[in-house]
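Long-time lurker, finally posting.

We've been working with DUF2621 domain-containing protein (Virgibacillus oceani) and I want a structural starting point before designing mutants. I don't trust myself to interpret raw outputs, so I'm hoping someone here can both generate the structure tokens and explain anything notable. Sequence follows.
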Amino acid sequence: MSAIVDYLIVLWGILLISLMSIGGFFMFRKFLKRLPKEDGKSTLDWEEYYMEKTRHMWKDDEKKLLEELVSPVPELFRDVARQKIASKIGEVALNKKQRTITQDILIEGYIIATPKRDHKFLRKKLREKEIDVTPYESLFELSPDTYRNLKKRSQ
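Top reply, 14 upvotes:
Generated this for you. Predicted structure of DUF2621 domain-containing protein:
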């Protein structure tokens, strides 16, 4: 009987350490996003900036499309993903000097904001919506760093 209790205590300890490690990992990532970059603003500051600057540019159809595109993201992470993606879409719209967020801008920003591992889900969702991905093929090949470098060169 004592051996079983010892075994359960060890398993409980492993479970607690594992859960605390996972939580710590996500807290550390959030901390890193809050650290200022070379320009004095953090990643989260830039996200908030682009969200505020482009809030008036969103039409209902584009908001609905964004909601449909983020629907495969687990609900726990959906709000964070939506903000990151919407801010990237806003950045693209401002860089292209657009007055409204169009479907093309939305898809371009969404592709740039999502990691390559999620592109297959995005392609599937766009196919379901009967949206041709051919004009965006070159964007699927870019990494976020490559896009940043292209943006800097074009400015």
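Before you design anything, note these points.
Residues 57 and 149 are 26 Å apart (CA to CA).
Residues 1-34 form one domain.
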